[in-house]
Amino acid sequence: VQLVESGGGTVQSGGSLRLSCLVSGYLYGGNCMGWFRQAPGQEREIVAATYAALNRTHYVDSVKGRFTISQDNVNNTVYLQMNSLKPEDTAIYYCAARDDGSCSLNPGWTYRGQGTQVTVS
């Protein structure tokens, strides 16, 4: 499984960005996709997850109402629409996938991309 992120950049506080993740390869046990982020000096945290087959999404409290995760299974792409961005959203954002048959914000993520930088000034 290969995950390739794009769409990062620098944006002013209150602005928006949309991250994309192109997925290749086969995922056993379903197709649960997610986005992590890691800010300088901080641990990596999961911010959103989606299991499109059951139309389920999960968000960490700090991004609820501002971020939206979605999947385009025709184009094998996962998106993270980020609105009302804040300086504390500054981080490297990673696309992730899991194939253990579950889909939540809990540990168990198997695959991760190389990341894309998001900077909010």
Major sheet: 7 strands, mixed
Mean pLDDT: 92
Principal-axes geometry comes out as globular
Helix content: under 10%
Molecular structure report:
Strands 2, 4, 5, 6, 9, 10 and 11 form a seven-stranded mixed beta sheet that branches. This protein is 0% helix and 50% strand. The protein starts with a strand and ends with a strand. The chain has strands at residues 2-6, 9-11, 17-24, 32-38, 45-51, 56-59, 67-72, 77-82, 91-98, 111-112, 116-120.
Brief description of this entry?
The chain has strands spanning 2-6, 9-11, 17-24, 32-38, 45-51, 56-59, 67-72, 77-82, 91-98, 111-112, 116-120. It is an all-beta fold.
Could you list some keywords that capture this structure?
single chain, 121 residues, mainly beta, 7-stranded mixed beta sheet, 4-stranded antiparallel beta sheet, 0% helix
